[in-house]
Amino acid sequence: AVEPVRIKPIAKDKRTGKPEVALVHLTDWQYGKQTVSYGPTTCAQRIEQFIDKTIHITDIQRKHHPVREVYVLLGGDMVEGLGIFPGQVYEVHAHLYEQLFTVSQIITQSITTLAQHFEKVHVVCEYGNHGRLGRKGEMPGGDNIDRIAYEIARDKCKGLTASWQSSGDWYQIARIGNYKALLVHGDEIKSFGGNTPAFGILRKVNAWAGGVIEEFTDCYMGHWHTPMSLTMGNGNRIFVTGSPESHNEYAREFVAATGKPSQRLHFIDPTKGRVAAEYVVWLD
């Protein structure tokens, strides 16, 4: 059996002010990939930096109002995987064994640190296309390295989290009071010519909001390694979160674009059911 991590619980914030809830979107780590400026060590350092910045920004918010809880959205592509595209093996520094266990350790460490600074930690998991086993369509979609890493971390974090939501579905809905966050990886939207398909993202998420799936407020996705936000027809929003990766040669050559490493931090008003504050947290 996996020995769970144990920590001293944080002191409760007994203030009566209107509370908000932190929302952390961790996605597209591509752990195991090696570029000029990014690799396994850089990945771990940047995620640690992001968690530290999350705590720092939360402490600033707490000077005005309580922030007792945090929702951690794990958005997929935490591993680089193998066999996702031809020639990938030449860009990988760590193979699946190391990818799986190191990613689960980074997730565990991130949640452990957050649990020392929040009264309640909730985790919501979605897997990505880079965690796929074999060629596309060869194996069930739910058989995924991301999912396995999540479950290892879940065992290690028993006692640290108030809830842990995970399934083989292609989407999850995180319920934070009156706020409902739709979490997808982002590969459900197809791209042509290598561009980030902003119109395609809007069209697909607007369709989902039309009753195709359960009601949701805003949508969170990764996959595109480009932080941006889009407004849907109903006034709600789509948040696309970046990646801690840097110097992606495929993006530079084929997409003619490059991204700065980042992840996303929001603060949610659970009563009004909306984002109260939003941060793209830069990691370069």
Question: What's the structural blueprint in terms of helices and strands?
Answer:
Layout: E1 20-26, H1 40-62, E2 67-74, H2 96-115, E3 120-125, H3 145-156, E4 163-165, E5 171-176, E6 179-184, H4 198-212, E7 218-221, E8 228-231, E9 237-240, H5 249-255, E10 262-269, E11 274-282
Parallel strand pairs: 1-2, 2-3, 3-4, 6-7, 7-9
Antiparallel strand pairs: 1-10, 5-6, 8-9, 10-11
Helix pairs in contact: 1-2, 2-3
Task: Describe what you observe in this structure.
The chain has 284 residues and is an alpha/beta fold. The chain has one domain (20-282): Metallo-dependent phosphatases (Purple Acid Phosphatase, chain A, domain 2, 4-Layer Sandwich), CATH 3.60.21.10. The protein contains 5 helices and 11 strands. It has helices at 40-62, 96-115, 145-156, 198-212, 249-255, and strands at residues 20-26, 67-74, 120-125, 163-165, 171-176, 179-184, 218-221, 228-231, 237-240, 262-269, 274-282. It has a 6-stranded mixed beta sheet with strand order 4-3-2-1-10-11, covered by helices on one side. Strands 5-6-7-9-8 form a 5-stranded mixed beta sheet, with helices on one face. A hairpin with a 5-residue loop joins strand 8 and strand 9. The protein is globular and about 55 Å long.
Quickly count the domains.
Answer: 1
- Radius of gyration, in Å, reads 18 Å
Q: Overall 3D geometry?
A: globular
CATH fold assignment: Purple Acid Phosphatase, chain A, domain 2
Strand order of the largest sheet: 4-3-2-1-10-11
**Which CATH architecture?**
4-Layer Sandwich
**Kindly state the mean pLDDT as a whole number?**
90
For the sheet with most strands, the description reads:
6 strands, mixed
Helix content: 25-40%
The rounded distance between the terminal residues' Cα atoms is 38 Å
